[in-house]
Amino acid sequence: MAQPAKNNDIDVSEYAIARAAMMSTYAPPETVFVRGEGAYLYTEDNDEYLDFFAGIAVNSLGHCHPDLVKTLQDQAASLWHLSNAYRVPQGEQLAARLVELAGFDKTDGRVFFTNSGTESVECGLKIMRRYQFDQGHTGKNRIIGTSSAFHGRTFAAICAAGNPTHVKGFVREDEGYDHAPFGDLDAIAALINENTAGVIVEPVQGEGGIHVASEAYLEGLRKLCDQHGALLMFDEVQCGIARTGKVFGYQHADVQPDIIALAKGIGGGFPVGACIANGPFAASMVVGTHGSTYGGNPLAMAVASKVIELVTETEFLQHVTTVAGELHCALQGLVDKHSGVLDQVRGKGLMLGLRFKDADANAEVMKLAREEKILTTKAGDNVLRLLPPLIIEMSHIEEAVAKLDRAITVYAAQK
Ligand SMILES: *Cc1c(COP(=O)(O)O)cnc(C)c1O
Asked: Of all helices (H) and strands (E), which one includes residue 165?
């Protein structure tokens, strides 16, 4: 069994006991990474891995970006935590900037800061119901989600996504959520009614298998919500913050949501999330309705402000679009070459998926790719998901495609 090499203070048995002390909600490989730099991760033995996983689209600026390290260190030396009982001016400025970036009305768009994606979603779902309640629409409390969705692991988030594996044994028969197949506007039209408080959708589904919502779908959802007085929330936790080459994934379409959930990439690795809501809806969240002890603390606000400053520069967004185009094209080359096992490449920006013909091929190739020293991740629908840091260059793309080519060749030969 592998152990933390070079650490003579811990013997194997203590290591095994420590490892077993973790709940088995994850099953990581033995490899232990101790250092990261840019698009690479390093083990204790200094083995170098190309990171096309980025901690699930979190390390948007790669590992240990010098500006983020300095920002965090400077803030750590002055003030860590206050609670929301006191003002955090950096958070106020970041909130105003997010409202502006989302295209909400500057005078009444509002932000609630959280520590994770599921909390951002939770806040948005609460706004949907509380807003309707405040309007006197007490029966208007049902929420519509879509198939193969992922919104996080709190009760409301698992209900909204409705993934059978995630809800099993946790939720009762009817918690007030309805589901329609992702991308099917007619199915939403058939479900939405006077009891619908709101609709939640990922503009690009991540965990579900890199499904890109069409512009017509997103715009159609807006119309249906308007017709039925329902709120529209986009879960941008994975596809937001420049991942698709625009600040928000929905900005490829001509549509404006009422609520946006953010996390992952916005902290570049520091745990932080945000729920942005347009004025009339956010106005329901008055003192006493919601809260978070850590949400919006000075450390998180300092780092997130720096991330937003860097990734929203026009040249940065252009860089993402350019390298994403190159990567998409190179992956199409792999699909053409390995057409016996690969079905298609799909996705938007640097949120890409290689879809395999056989079930579980994605898991197999993920392991083989790791042996070639490139990290990727699985998604639903037989998809191998690629979520590189947004700072990758052409050289990383060439290295990634060569490594994936070898992994897929090995897989195809074994089959
Ligand atoms: C990861 C993810 C979440 C949950 O984020 P956590 O930080 O794990 O709570 C929610 N929605 C989407 C689309 C995600 O990808």
From this structure: helix 164-167
